[in-house]
Amino acid sequence: MSAALPTSLEANPRLDQWLKVNADETITVFSGKVELGQGIVTAIAQIAADELGVAPEQLHIAAGNTDIAPDEGYTAGSQSIEVGGAAMRIACAHARSLFAEAAARWLEVDVSDLMLARGMFSRKGAPAQSVGYWQLAGAVRLDVPVARVAEGGPRAASLTGRSLARRDIVPKLSGAAFVHDIELPGMLHARVVRGPDHGAHIESWNREAILALPGVTDVVRSGNFVCVLALREAAAVKAAQAARKLVRWIPAPRRPAAGEIGSVLKALPAESATVHASGQARPGAVAIRAAYSKPYIAHASIGTCAAAAVLAKGHLTIWSHTQGAHFLRAQTALALGLPAESVTVIHRDGAGCYGHNGADDVAFEAALAATRSGRPVLLTWSREEELAWSPFGSAGAVEIDAAVDGEGRVSKWHIGIWSHTHVKRPGWGEGINLQAAWEMDPPVPEPLPKDMPLPAGGGHRNGIALYDFAHQQVDYHFIAQSPVRVSALRSLGAFANVFAIESCMDELAAASGQDAVAFRLRHLADGRARAVIEAAARRADWRADAPGGEGRGRGIGFAQYKNRSAYCAVVAEVEVAEKVRVLRVFAAVDAGHIVNPDGLANQIEGGVVQAISWTLKEAVAWDEHGVRTRSWEDYPILGFDEVPEIEVALLDQPGAPGLGAGECAAGPVAAAVANAVQHAIGVRVRDLPMTPERIAHLIEAAD
Amino acid sequence: MAVQIEVNGVACAVAADGDTPLLYCLRDDLKLKGTRFGCGAGHCGACTVMVDGRAVQSCDTPLWSVSGRSITTVEGLADDRIGRAVRDAFIELQAAQCGFCIDGILMAVTALLRADARPGRPAILKALERNLCRCGTHVRILRAIDVAIERLAGGVQ
Ligand code: FES
Ligand code: FES
């Protein structure tokens, strides 16, 4: 057929990999995209119900079970609606057309005379005579390749654009709902006995003393991986702490010393390349050269990582909040030397997932504990493990050398980006990316990092400014070595890059005497980009001449995520006393055709709050012995009393493809806040986070 | 030497060491999984329950200290007029993303509204001082609390 099929369909081409009609008058659809707290399962179910013409309650969705669900790679990168949703839509439309043909034969009418409601086909005007998917199931073969079908045939009233309630919320507010709550028969609670830092080696250990700790039933050791097992969770928690003193560790090699992020990164060896170049630089009337940075940031979910595992009759089953059940299965099988068919991974909800956290690591640790002990286990991480043993979002440093000509247009734009990989997931690149696999005996080597190439990009994601500049050069300095373990965190490099680009845009606008909004608009031909900026400015009652400098100010930030997903503009209003308070945020988002407006707004609101937290408060601290931020006291996040009022405007584009939006607000928020702080107190913050100490320091330096 | 407590209106004898955090007694012994572990150090509020109607963080509350007291967890919220209104408002406003923090927040808010039927914003923020949410659901949570307060004041059950 016409356009290429979404990658999810190419990998899972049979219709019966996507759905099954049940005798109880329901349909089950299978999705490889899993619930991470983003409401995706509801959105995909909504798409499926819509295409099939069934009511939402007639539709079940089974997601992320490697035995039955399609392999759709990772649930990440705001791709779930763009790819997973598109695939589900095509598969369900195909199924509906096959069933409509069968219904037409059954009812002896033409397909064009059919109508469809709640899964029942009937002749138009004669609803009494009807036949449902359920009666027709025997007459329709689903073991056929999925194909795009032409529009037409009967359709039920559309659900798209309606805010259906999330399927997972009521259970989550009722009791057991998460992977943490699993109870397997004969299950033991497992806790890892951690060394002082990643890469530490065991010199000696006192196995008997660990076994003698109260409540401990078993201890598993493989190489430098040790965990205790106990019937009672409280006993496992206590024993794991006590056991730390019963193991002697040889510390890991020292890490690069801490310091300002820009200097830390630039001191490390880098592989440099010009990744984009267009136009000719011209000197301008006004020139700016500025350096920006963003630190390592923790996922810091409220719940810690956890997984359950059981080995029974040679088959290993793992329950995990992984983003990629099929990858986890393949990597676990490889690391344990099992055939992939002997491993099943079943997705279960975890606490909020904002990228590659410790979900896969803990799942493999649970698998190791279950296979070595022969007992079903539930392994839960401590707060310290969550904050210090998960991968972090990579730091980034950005330098921009830019000029504006006498006409007030950018005539030179040279940006350099220093960062690490932003993807080190299991299954990404070579080798095995599971922490305990590097520690067990025999260990598998830790693979070399490799970043995601453009156009999506990792460290250089959104490194190319969307603006129509006469000249633009982007250099990426990829740094393989990192002082702390890094991987994907919501928005990857886009957070640092958009923060830098959009801060610099304000600096250029101010230096050339132009309004920040007008300056952006005169460099943007893309109508959808202009529309979100205009919408945010209008909502915020943006005035070019708004007075600032009295401790209150407003600023704007904009980006199109990945330069091809959702457009987002943010206006922030701040108050700066000794600390920065964000008072109000107006966000305007164009995410294409909207499936579930309330779900989308919820995602944007959450993205805004999280980005304010990153911007104002968060930085992973380390020294040469390891990560120092190991509790909520060392790693504070935004609290209820610091959250602004947020208004979200959604610019729907009926008929346009849905665009991933879960990550679009991050960079624009950071820039809008920085620009607002400049407006409020006349001080430019170029390094994150904007802690009271940093602000005080900048004010002092300016005086 | 079991410790006697009342949980969601039911008398229970918990056969655990008196030092065991209440959190694990609820989750392990009584299989009430809605009370969640987040930090074990009293910082995040994921484990909040009500003890005699007051919000308490169960992760740093030893079992012995609640002997003979009455405990409410999220599983028992529906039996409480205020708790039910709070939970209903959260569901109606879809005030959750991952939902992991929410059960603790429901408990903290219910305890607040038992003590003060019409708290202002500052009192609400104070009551949520020790509850963290990483998904950034705060704005909706605050809206849901306002709705619950309105409903309760209007006598709607
Ligand atoms: S788990 Fe009790 S406060 Fe965090
Ligand atoms: S909803 Fe996820 S932590 Fe609050």
If you had to describe this structure to a student in words, what would you say it looks like?
The complex is a heterodimer of chains A (about 700) and B (about 160). By secondary structure, chain A is an alpha+beta fold. Chain A folds into three domains: about 5-160, 2-Layer Sandwich (Aldehyde Oxidoreductase, domain 4), CATH 3.30.365.10; about 180-250 and about 305-380, Aldehyde Oxidoreductase, domain 4 (2-Layer Sandwich); about 270-295 and about 390-420 and about 455-700, Aldehyde Oxidoreductase, domain 4 (2-Layer Sandwich). The longest helix of chain A has 28 residues, at about 80-105. Chain A starts with 6 loop residues before the first helix and ends with a helix. Chain B has about 160 residues and is an alpha+beta fold. Chain B has two domains: about 1-75, Ubiquitin-like (UB roll), CATH 3.10.20; about 75-155, [2Fe-2S]-binding domain (DNA polymerase, domain 1). A five-stranded mixed sheet of chain B has the order 2-1-5-3-4, sandwiched between helices. The longest helix of chain B has 16 residues, at about 140-155. The termini of chain B are far apart. Chains A and B meet through α5, α7 and α16 of A and α1, α2, α3 and α5 of B.
